[in-house]
Amino acid sequence: MNVLSRIYRSTGAVLLVCFLAFFPGTEPAEAAPTPPPSASSKSEGPQFYSDLSVEVSGVVDGDVYASGQNVTISGNVTGDVIAAAQTITITGNVGGNVRLAGQNVTISGDVSRSGTIFAASIIVTATGKLGNDLVGAASDLKIAGNVGRDLMVSVDRLSIDGTVGGNATYYSDTEAQIAQGAVDGAVERVAPPQSTSEERSPGASFVAWLRGLLYALVALSLVTLFAGLLFPRWLTRVTNHLMPSPWKALLVGFLAAIAVPVALLVLLVTIIGAPLALTGLLVWIALSLATFVYGAFYVGRLLFRGDQHPVLKSFVGGLILITALQVPWLNIVVWLAMVSFGLGAQLLEFHSQRPWSAKSELDATSPAPLPGAVDDGDTSARTL
After folding, report:
1. pLDDT (tens digit, 9 = 90+) per residue, 91-119?
2. Which residues have a Cβ under 8 Å from the Cβ of 3 and sit 6 or more positions away?
3. Full-model pTM
4. Residue 256 backbone class (left: φ over 0; alpha: ψ -120 to 50; beta: rest)
5. What are the extents of the domains in the chain?
6. Please, where are the H alpha helices in the chain?
7. Are 66 and 83 a contacting pair, CB within 8 Å?
């Protein structure tokens, strides 16, 4: 088994045991918290602790699971210690393994077996000892004590002034500071793989940009062609809201682009409105994507004021819009304008299609009664 796979497996083990350690240590609010063992007490079986500050100073005949801000093991533990905290300090004796995750980890006691530690800073003091292996990852790792067998870590800075009984393998960008004779076995530094990507020349970058532009021209032009061929009347009706006064559509689209996502988010956090929010989100995405088609047709209508075919207007307008979207900085302005105008025009058209609007327009176009005519309930009017 290589070093990297062991580190990965150890990482998963630490995260799992920390998860298991947290929940068994959480008790109902009405239950009194279990006090940590004192120096004179003795506990048997696995012990679970979860508090702001946890100190195990007695004798535990079993494993210890602890989580909190500060965890201190100053007593004697016959089994393993599995802990997750901001600061972890082990000054006592641990008969099994230690599995630790935190910000600062200090070991100045005696750990009979191995240690798997992941932290920003790991210090094994002169009085600290691990009987077997030390596996983990840290930004700073200082070993002034004794590691009985192998050292396998991923670090930024490593210093060994104590002793390592086996091999020392570390992943790092920098060379470790190892005292003479501190490592009995082999010392191996594995440098992280360097990026093999080469910087492209300006000519290659231009060719890549040109390929992307050609792809966008072909793909989006097909979209505008089919839209102009299949939905010419709808394109005309929507863009009619942009021809006389586009600023109204711009205002409506801008306000809708802000208000609709907020409303969908509010619905999403509710239980009843969640399905409606998801449906509305899909519709809103479809309307936003369709703004390109309406923007292309609108640009084509501005260029061709005659009776040219809608396909021609959509195609030419699409070419101009695609090209503008490929220009840096200009593409941001064009995209914002396209979305705002397109959403506003669509919403105004949907608003004009409401049923009562059609009835009001029909009443407005009906002839007015003649002056002096009186409606007596019949279909005809008589003059006074």
Report:
1. 999 999 999 999 999 999 999 999 999 99
2. 152, 169, 171, 190
3. 0.47
4. alpha
5. 3-190, 209-354
6. 3-22, 202-230, 232-239, 246-268, 274-303, 310-325, 330-352, 355-365
7. yes
